[in-house]
Predict the 3D structure of the following.
Amino acid sequence: DIQMTQSPSSLSASIGDGVTITCRARQNINDFLNWYQQKPGKAPTLLIYAASSLQSGVPSRFSGSSSATEYTLTITGLQPEDFATYYCQQSFSAPYTFGQGTKLEIK
Amino acid sequence: EVQVVETGGGLVQIGGSLRLSCGTSGFTFSRFSFMWVRQAPGKGLESVSYISGSGVTTNYADSVKGRFTISRDNAKNSLYLQMNSLRVEDTAVYFCAREGNGLASAIDYWGQGALVIVSS
């Protein structure tokens, strides 16, 4: 199974701030990297697929990028509804493993 | 409208069995791969099992290999997860998840989840 290492595990920020979450793959995953948002008691929702493609309906303040086996989710201009837990997932090789998650909290 | 609904969760004893079902509607079921993803209380997401649209290809996490079996019935638009020899560490919410087409295999639809509690 491909191991995904996500950091930080938690993050505090204020409304209007920008934040960055990083995910590293143990091996090359050819940009088969996705980002999800999960709110308490709910199923995750897809934000970004293929490292940098924005899922339909997702605000443009969310963006993704990649450099070799390092992937980044950036949120600019944080809104109240953005405070949630974020997960990366590789979809290069089944089982499609997830990162450990990053909990984004209001400062 | 795409709908994905899990059923079959509940309380089961250690070593027991349980079968989860996932009913779907609003799309051509056989054209999509599916997976089961679980989340233990207060923990992160774990991919448990995967099945291709035809059902020919399946895959399991090491933690459930040999105990869980994924299957599908394309005539009934349904996905299943047979769970045997259950352990306390299998306690989790189990999500049925559809792999989107043209989305680099990302999950585009999730069910609401079914809670499985394994207890002595």
In short: Chain A is about 0% helix and 50% strand.
